[in-house]
Amino acid sequence: MKLIKAEVGKFRSINTDQVVDIDPAVTAFVGMNEAGKTVFLKALHKSLDAMGAEKFKTVDDYPRKDYTGYMKRHAAEPDVATKLTYQLDENEAKELNKLLHVQLKSGFVFSIQHKYNNIKTILLQVDEASAIAQLATTVGISSDAISTVRKAATLREAAEKLGEIERTDIDTAFLTTLQARIKKTDWTNVVQYELWRELDKRIPKFLYFSDYDLLPGKLNLADLAQKVQAAKDDPDNADTHIKPKHKAVLALLRMADVEPTDFTGTTGYEEMKAKIEAVSISLTDQVLEFWKQNEDLEVEVDIKEDIKDESPFNNGPNLYLRIKNRRHRGVSTPFDQRSRGFIWFFSFLVWFDSVQDHLAAPGTEAPSNLILLLDEPGLALHALAQGDFLKYIDTLAEQHQVLYTTHSPFMVHSDRLHQVRMVEDKEKIGTVISANLSGSDERTIFPLQAALGWTVAQNLFIGKRNILVEGPSELTYLQVMSALVEAGGGEGLRQDATIVPVGGLGNVVTFVSLLGANGLKLAILHDYSGSTDQRLDDLIRQKILAQKSVFNVSQYRDIEKLGQNTVATDIEDLFDPAMYIDYFNITYSKQLNGLVLKVSDLPKGDRIVNRIERWLDSKAVKVRPSGGFNHYAVAAKFGATPPKTIAVDVQKRFVALFESLNKAI
User: Fold this and answer.
1) Closest residue by Cα to residue 196 from 274, 104, 262
2) Residue 410 pLDDT
3) How many CA atoms lie within 13 A of 196 on its CB side?
4) 401-406 and 26-31 strand pairing
5) Staple partner for 485: which of 82, 450, 490, 555, CB 3.0–4.6 Å?
6) What is the DSSP string of 495-564?
7) Is residue 314 within 8 Å of 330, Cβ to Cβ?
8) More confident call, 460 vs 451
């Protein structure tokens, strides 16, 4: 059974009904701080708290601006706080059809309204006709009884009519059984009630976890036992005695099957320590399965007294939670001195395991009919650790629906935007929740834009072997020349090589620094100014980049000196000058207005691009307003209409270049 829709009425910052479609696996609520994300989760939590502790309270939950007016009608007409709609899967429908002799279709839907007086209304429709038809097939009843049952429209009518006819002993026993079914409910539709009783067992309950439910580094167990007893003696004010940190430790103890009173009773130290350590080992294994930031951690739980500590820690045994780091020779530190992200992640694992164990019937597995409500999960985690936690959420979603709030771009799957709901606090309206991304405030959708930008940046590297070049001109020339070289029988670039233009040599350095450590094979090809680039030299010296992975085009200009730095060179200088000038003339024929550039017209120099720009200046010709010419426009013309043949020297240069790049990656 899945929650497919949640409608929240007036509740705290929600002033108008918000109808939200819920994803069958994961739903992410994205919005700014104070937008109302937590409010929505708390409304669901109070509707059906798995632990039975949460209820709607008008003074806490009803919007204050309408509170006085509402309280005048609350007793007689309580508002609907939430309306939750559920859907059965095919197997559940078949099971209930067989059990109750109804005809539920796959995808059967029903709803429950939860009101502010904490009474619920069931919105459920089912026909009794199939159940009546099944009754008429009961073995042994008389033909008169069969006829009477078949004529009835409802079970109540069938019982009433059977009471009026002459019956056999079997008929009377049959009627008694039917009347017993009817007496169990005052619902008009008896089968509808029976169906509800079965559905009620299967409805998933909500578990809510937030940043307040974190484990402390130590807690006095005698003090905890007193607070637990005080909460039992004063259940209406239990929250004033048991704070979130106490609940977190109780969850840890519950996992170990230990009660706080055990520490002041006859239970031996070794027995309790053994139970606690067993839980420690289990938690360590779980943490390391998903915590990839440091896999050398161990969880340590200890129980001991310290009469020199401050009150209440000087009264009886304390529970100490520590983390040992094998990376630093087993040095351990108090749990609450670890990173905030680790504390959150570990506390969540303890809480979730404990709750599942608490809800499971003796001898049974943990219940799967739970919906997890995670409020800002992993907010203190490193960006990559948030990615790890997203994987953990997917693992949880295999058994439970997960609803979580976030404003972090790293806590959103950019390829699953159908799971995202935008949450905004609109002036004079209050909290608004929508799946409409395009209609949302730009500040609200910023995490999605950032997530998409990160994905795009990552996907620039679509293969394991990548050649970083300065711009799109290099991309075009390398792709076209690779094809021409191969057509001439030479070696072109590897088919699995990805050419990545990064927008200048400065960006090449940035890309390598940020992404070169991701296990990718990188080669760099750049233009040569006449001297090596200091930034690239620094990366090589710091061993971030290997010298054998860096190439400049001057090393392939002089066929007699392949692999050696020569003169200042752009990739265009690897071509025959006459051929490149032909493409320049074709590209800018309109702007040149009949003027044709020849090789002999060029001023002296090493770089043909610079020589053409100087010629344009000397002729006072502007082929573009900003001066010079667009190098990529010439490259694009070359790519659109590549030459049918290439000079032997040009072929040799590019063959040597491709061999070097292929070897490097």
Assistant:
1) 104
2) 85
3) 17
4) parallel
5) 490
6) TTEEEEE-SSHHHHHHHHHHHTTSS-EEEEEE-B-SS--HHHHHHHHTTSS-GGGEEEGGGGT-GGGTTS
7) no
8) 451
Of the candidates 330, 395, 337, 399, the one whose C-alpha atom is nearest the C-alpha of residue 370 is: 399
Q: Which of 581, 240, 210 is nearest to 403 (CA)?
A: 210
The token pair that represents 221 in the structure block: 């167990």
| Distance between CA atoms of residues 662 and 45, nearest Å | 58
Alpha-carbon gap, residue 71 to 339, rounded angstroms? 46
576 CB burial (10 A radius; 0-12, 13-18, 19+): middle
Task: Considering the domain delimited by 2-123+373-453, tell me its CATH architecture.
Answer: 3-Layer(aba) Sandwich (3.40)
By the 8 A CB rule, do 215 and 245 touch?
yes
Q: What number is the average pLDDT over the span 83-106?
A: 94
Q: Are 104 and 96 in contact (CB under 8 A)?
A: yes
Identify the CA nearest to 412 among candidates 440, 458, 378, 448: 448
List of residues 6+ apart from 610 with CB closer than 8 A:
none
- The sheet carrying 80-87 orders its strands as 18-21, 2-8, 80-87, 109-115, 120-123
3-class state of residue 220 by DSSP: strand
- Helix/strand/coil for 149: helix
> What are the strands, taking DSSP E only, across 254-361?
297-305, 317-325, 331-334
CA 510 to chain centre: 28
Alpha-carbon distance of 61 to 587, in angstroms, equals: 70
CA 532 – CA 528 distance, rounded (Å): 7
Among 306, 303, 298, CA closest to 335: 298
Which has more confidence, 88 or 106?
88
Cis amide prior to 312 (ω within 30 degrees): yes
Tokens (6 digits) for 34: 């104070």
87 SS3 class: strand
